[in-house]
Amino acid sequence: MMGSVSDKSDGEYSVIGDKGEISFIDYEDDRSVIDFNPSEEGPIVISVPFPFVNGKPQSVTVGERTVDSITIKNTTGEPVDLWTKIYASNPVDTFTLSLLKPPLENSDSKTGKDFLEFFVLEDRMVQPGQTLTLWVSCKPQELGLHTTVVQFDVGDRLERVIFLLAEDKISRSLASKKPYSRGGRKKQFPVDTYVSTARPARGKNQPYYKNRLPRYDIPKDIREMIESKQIPNGIEDGLTRENYALYFRTLLIMEELQLEEDMRAYDMENVTMRRKGQFLALVVPGLAERRPSLVHGDFIFAKLACEDETSPYQGFIHRVEADEVHVKFAPEFHMRSKTMTLVEAILQLYKTRKDTRILVCAPSNSAADHILEKILGENSVQVHETEIFRLNAPSRPYEDVKPDYTRFCFFDEYIFKCPPLGALIRYRVVISTYMSACLLYAEGLDCGHFTHIFLDEAGQASEPESMVPIACHCQRDTVVVLTGDPMQLGPVIHSREAESYGLGNSYLERLYEFEPYYTGNENYVTRLVRNYRSHPQILFLPSKLFYEEELIACKDDLSSFVTLLDFVPNKEFPVVFFGIQGCDEREGSNPSWFNRFEVSKVVDVINRLIENGNLDEEDIGVITPYRQQVLKLKNALENFDMPDIKVGSVEQFQGQERKVIIVSTVRSTIKHNDFDRKHCLGFLSNPRRFNVAITRAISLLVVIGNPHIVSKDPYWHKLLWYCSDNNSYQGCVLPERLEEFDENPAQESFAEYEEEVFQPTTQNEWEQNNWEQNESFQPELPKPVKDVDEWSDGWR
């Protein structure tokens, strides 16, 4: 970085602000701070200290002095008066100048006394042809990026910007082993013809379904249209009463095809399978995290890498263990190689109304198991074991269910089944996932059998998922209760096209677009504003940004362990922001980002929590948006013998809580335009992910990230300055406070950060389009039911 005063003001060319401060310099975005040629600057040639290595700042060790020289050569025929100044170090006073090379740390005391360091070297004369050598030193005391500007006044003003990355043993151990390069496309082989094999046995007593669903193969013309990036007919017209089934069927086809495409990303080449009894065992990276998600009965295609002309073999998965699947091929191939509120409502109905029959659906097996656990653990109402049933899909592994709960399930030879109709009708409470609810219909259970249907976490389910229990079991007098938070994460949709046309909207969210739901009519909607989970200071910001300041913090036992933590500056304010200007990296062919400096800080915080806060590993959770950061964190924690600390994405923490939540934001350099803000910063630019991330903590929330990056988003900007205003920010220099973000972003720019979504017609347009031909038909609205509170997840 250089400049000349000539006819312009001193600061006009400089990266230094009026107060002698450096704003955040993103060297990945603005390469001009490091890409210049000293020989092209003029007759005074100044070398570049601490030059970049492979495009990155040099790495130094925290607590150790690092030194480099700067040479100033006068190529003119006249003496030059030189003034040199260290300007705007970040962190403050971490860089110094000297005329002599600094002595080693273990030098004798006399040498140390003779050595002098300066921030300013005044009035040095450089003779014609002379080369003057100065020394610049840095002794970092904290992790992350250290920067300074060395300013040279030789008549013109020249500058050298210095970047150093301060590391410790943990961050160094996580360094990329090889540079990132985009992985090539894996070789694909056709599977139009293949050698098939038998499906896994379902047990001796194969269930007979009275209402067996037919196969719904994807029509060839629809497949070809979607694969050629065309939108099928009728989708762009929007959802109407006449096209309801066709509309969602087409969206589900789009989602299915996208899942097929996504699954190809997990193809593997040149892998080895080892024999394990009658099966072949295959290690699948990411399987333990359900990436990919494989279950009993799924199949794969395989062929020998050395034989291109042979047909592939189909192999069925018989068992899933951690990151390994047990597969069986044809014989010849083997020879060759918000829950507590929901629970309270259910128990009240069970106790006070003996004629009730309740179906409870959750979006996942773990969520359904959690409901079962809470119902059984409630002492105020004892549910008879013969009246509660946990329905599992046959594909669910038997070992996946806790032994204490298998007595509430039905299975044969360790394969889960739906019990006979005669047994089903005796249960008063049936718990299932959304999709498995269709098994009850397949067994012949009458539509309308259940008096109440509870759809837990309905905001996380797509509308077709919600329709499975409703379409199979709901009649006009059935009470349907949807619980969830439309301000938190919605369904996970893989097809961007299907998501943009409405598959990404939950049924709960779409209901909120119609009266009487969006008006908050108390006959239809109960808002839970009392929060029994989090500390009031943790709740303050989400209440203001997302819930119209209506949340009431009702947590009684405010944890005292926070007062024992030395890194919490304000003991009355349990939200801490650690600012680190680290370095986000990728390695190998993996496109996922990681930030080893933040990993090191996370480990440091966890060690101090366990040592000083008397916390167990199960009390701590770490949220981070990138899979590679998750893996780096898990590896680091395992090395410190802390394997029981949960590390995962925001989605993996929705519906959960921990005494302490640590958020690692990862990104530390990015171009700050709209595209990158929406698509590269990931969850940093998604208000719902932000809301979920900061509301998982019970007693302490710790955020670790680059404030200059996260503050580009209005929600994170509010959180950053919320911490700063309460004396709870530590780390690198803060960015400039943006006045336009001081207003409530939820009121002004929420839609700006959302994906484009399907906008349904208004209620009047719906009625005009669908009812004007039969004005005499006026359907009677069912009488609303208001005898229970809304959803769980810490709210009442």
TrEMBL record:
Residues 760-796 are annotated as: Disordered. Residues 266-336 form the Helicase MOV-10-like beta-barrel domain. Residues 505-707 form the DNA2/NAM7 helicase-like C-terminal domain. Its main location: cytoplasm. InterPro entries: DNA2/NAM7-like_C, DNA2/NAM7_AAA_11, MOV-10-like_beta-barrel, MOV-10/SDE3_DEXXQ/H-box, P-loop_NTPase, SF1_C_Upf1. One of its GO terms (biological process) is regulatory ncRNA-mediated gene silencing. It catalyses: ATP + H2O = ADP + phosphate + H(+). Residues 783-796 have a biased composition (Basic and acidic residues). It is found in: Cytoplasm. This is RNA helicase. The lineage of its organism: Eukaryota, Viridiplantae, Streptophyta, Embryophyta, Tracheophyta.
